[in-house]
Amino acid sequence: MLILTIESSCDETSAAVVRDGREVLSNIIASQVDLHACYGGVVPELAARKHLEACPVVIEQALQQANVELSEIEGIAVTAGPGLIGALLVGMSNAKAMAYALGVPLVGVHHIEGHILAPFLEHQIEFPYLALAVSGGHTHLYRVEGIGQYQIIGQTLDDAAGEAFDKVAKMSGLTYPGGALIDRLAQEGDPKYFDFPRPMLHRPGFDFSFSGIKTSVLNQIKKLEYPLEEKTLQHLAASFQEAVVDVLSRKTFKAAQEHGLTRIVVAGGVACNSGLRQRFKKFGCDKNIDVFFPSPLLCADNAAMLAVAGDEYLSRGLSSPLDLNARANWPLDSVGGPLQSDTQSKR
Q1: Domain check: are 24 and 89 in the same one?
Q2: What's the pTM value of the predicted model, to 2 decimals?
Q3: Among candidates 240, 153, 234, which has minimal Cα distance to 199?
Q4: Is the distance from CB of 194 to CB of 242 less than 8 angstroms?
Q5: Which end of the chain is more exposed for a tag (fewer CB within 10 A), N or C?
Q6: Domain of 145?
Q7: How would you class 254 by CB atoms within 10 Å of its CB: exposed for 0-12, middle for 13-18, buried for 19 or more?
Q8: Residues near 245 by Cβ (< 8 Å), separated by ≥ 6?
Q9: Nearest residue to 251 (alpha-carbon basis) of 188, 207, 186
Q10: What is the C-alpha separation between 84 and 65, in angstroms, rounded?
Q11: Are 204 and 158 in contact, with CB atoms under 8 Å apart?
C-alpha cells in the first residue's frame, strides 16, 4: 500500500510517502525552530499559523521527491494526538480533505505510537519489546506486544526529560532549543563535577521525576558567578546530563529485566542525545539486551514514522471517520488501542 502521512503535532510540519509501511520514498520536514527561538519555547498560536502555510508545501514536496502522483495514493495517515490542539487541527484538516477528495481511507495515528514504531523503518524487530518514549513532552515506558497493543509501565510524574534539558539550557543562558547544546557542552565537561540528585531511582516501580534535578541545577547556578564561564558551563551540562541519563538507563533496563524482555526501543527527540545512546548501548552489551534507536531524523517529529502503524491499520481494513477529532491528551494504552471504537469504522 502506498500511503501519504502528515504530522503537525507541535512545531514541525512534515509529510511523507511510504510504501508498505516500511519503504520511505520521501520524508519532508519544515521546522519552526527559528520562529520560536526568540520566545524561548513554542508559541501554540504561532505554530498553528505556520502549519497553515507549510502543510500544502511539504505535501507537494513529499509527492515530488517520491516521484508519485496524488492519484496513486491509496491511504492517508495523520497524527490525531496528543499535541497542541491548533497545530493538530491543521494537519488533520488537510488529511481529511485529501482523503475525501481522493476517495481513500483515512487513519488517525497516536504521536507516541509513531515514535516507538519508527525503528521498524530501519530494523527488523520482534515483539514484545520495551519502549522508552523520551522527548520534550513525554517520558514513558511501554510494554509493546504488537502494533496497537501497548501497556504503560512507567511515566514521568512532572517534567518530561526533554523539557528539563531545555529549561536547564535556558537557566544556563543558552538559546532555545537547548537539548542539543547541553549534549555538545557535556562532551567537554566532567560528569562528576557537580553532584545532582537521581529522583525516583531507588523507589519501587518505574515512574520518573525530573523537576528535582532541574531545581538542583538552578540552586547550583545561583551559587556561581553569572554569566557562567565556558568550562563551568561544560561541567554543569555534563553533570546534569549524567544525572538524567543515569535515571533513564537504570530504570529502563530494570523494567526490561523484571518484565522478561530482551529488546528495548528508545525513541523521541531525546533519543538523539549522544550520552543516552552510549549508555544504553553499553548496558545492552553488558546485560545481553538488544537496543534499537531510530536514526536522528526519525527521532525528531516526522511524518514517515506514522506509516508503520498507519499501513498496518489500513491493511486490516480499519480506518477513521472524516469527523475524527484532534486530541490534546490521549493515553496510548487506552482500551481498544489507538483506534478506539468511537473514532473508527471499517471500510
Answers
A1: yes
A2: 0.93
A3: 240
A4: no
A5: C
A6: 126-293
A7: middle
A8: 273, 275, 276, 279
A9: 207
A10: 28
A11: no
Q: How far is CA 89 from CA 10, 49, 52, 70, in A?
A: 11, 11, 10, 22
| pLDDT value at residue 337 | 42
Residues 140 and 270 occupy one common structural domain: yes
DSSP 168-181: HHHHTTPPSS-HHH
pLDDT, one tens digit per residue, over 195-223 is 999 999 989 999 999 999 999 999 999 99
Determine the Cα–Cα distance for residues 176 and 183; give it in Å rounded to an integer. Answer: 13
236 assigned to some structural domain:
yes
Q: Mark whether 265 and 337 lie in a shared domain.
A: no
- Domain annotation covers residue 121: no
Whether residue 173 lies inside any domain: the answer is yes
Query: Looking at the structure, do residues 165 and 192 belong to the same domain, yes or no?
Result: yes
How far apart CA 237 and CA 235 sit, in angstroms, is 5
pLDDT of residue 333: 84
- Smallest CA-to-CA distance from 332 within 156, 147, 163 is with 147
What local confidence, expressed as pLDDT, does residue 339 receive? 53
Q: Which three cell numbers stand for residue 66?
A: 517520491
Q: Count of domains in the chain?
A: 2
Buried b (16+ CB within 10 A) or exposed e, 56-85: eebbeebbeebebeeeebebbbbbbbbbbb
At 224, list the grid cell.
Answer: 556561581
Q: What CATH number corresponds to the domain at position 31?
A: 3.30.420.40
Residues 110 and 162 in one domain: no
Q: With pLDDT > 90 as the criterion, what percentage of the chain qualifies?
A: 91
